[in-house]
Specification:
InterPro entries: 23S_rRNA_MeTrnsfrase_RlmA, Methyltransf_11, SAM-dependent_MTases_sf. Keywords: Methyltransferase, Transferase. This is Methyltransferase type 11. The chain is of the alpha/beta class. It contains eight helices and eight strands, in the order H-E-H-E-E-H-E-E-H-E-H-H-E-H-H-E. 36% of the residues are buried. The longest helix is centred in the last third of the chain and has 14 residues. Helices cover 32% and strands 26% of the residues. The chain has a single domain, classed as Vaccinia Virus protein VP39 (Rossmann fold, 3-Layer(aba) Sandwich).
């Protein structure tokens, strides 16, 4: 087995449940946004009455909070993540609800004064507005447009129609249309360095919407091409985009 095959097998056998990316240590790096989402989230949870974290993954980011409100709920759709989040969050008093990430959210109107999410795959603004109390806040960090497109287009070719997706201006307009007022909107472009093809396989297995239907067998030759580029030229460079968004539900 050559070096390429060993790296591919390593990435293919890694556990991709949850949203802990520590497996990539030494294999890939990504800059962090300047605003410190986890720190700000913890502060807001400390002063909330009832909170909801949407698409919590394995609960890794939410679990960093120092304290939680008396009523604290998290939703997640993928069964391995639901189980992982429950193990991490239940001891902290957070209820984890299995939810398909499609409307409606399984909660009453005006149920929460704080709704949060980090990197949601989908954002249903009308549902967020419905479950927020008047004056309540949605606070989240979203993935922005063209995120990791250098890597995505390496496998899929040019994706011009997808480049506008997740644009913060569009999301802000949708939030306003749902009855929310934009309080804060910040953006950042961040450098990604990928140092071996094992990291590529891991990422494409974990972030499944980057290259839909990805399998090693299907993309083996393209993986080998990328492996050779990294071996000859050094780390593969891509860029992620993020935006911090805070929106408040207008009082009736």
């Amino acid at each position: 087995m050559d070096h390429f095959d060993r790296l591919v097998d390593l990435g293919e056998s890694a556990d991709v449940s949850g949203w802990d990316f520590s497996w990539l240590d030494g294999r890939a790096t990504e800059e962090r946004p300047p605003w410190g989402y986890a720190r700000q989230l913890s502060k807001r949870l400390g002063s909330a009455y009832a909170s909801l974290d949407i698409q919590t993954g394995g609960g890794e980011v939410l679990a960093e909070a120092e304290v939680f409100p008396r009523t604290a709920v998290a939703t997640e759709s993928w069964p391995p993540n639901v189980a992982k989040a429950a193990r991490k969050l239940h001891p902290r008093g957070v209820v984890v609800v299995a939810d398909p990430d499609e409307p409606p959210l399984p909660f009453a109107n005006d149920a929460f004064d704080l709704v949060t999410s980090r990197h949601p795959a989908t954002v249903w603004w009308t549902e967020i507005a419905r479950v927020l109390r008047p004056g309540g806040t949605y606070f989240a960090q979203h993935v922005g447009p063209e995120s990791a497109f250098e890597l995505i287009e390496f496998f899929l070719g040019p994706q011009p129609e997808a480049r506008r997706g997740r644009h913060p201006d569009d999301e802000a307009a949708d939030a306003i249309a749902a009855g929310l007022d934009i309080v804060d909107l910040r953006t950042a472009t961040l450098r990604i360095e990928i140092r071996d093809v094992a990291a590529v396989v891991y990422l494409l297995r974990k972030v499944i919407w980057w290259v839909p239907g990805f399998t090693v067998e299907r993309y083996r030759e393209r993986l080998r091409d990328l492996h050779e580029i990294i071996e000859q030229q050094g780390p593969f460079i891509a860029h992620s985009t993020r935006h911090l968004i805070e929106a408040r539900k207008l009082p009736r």
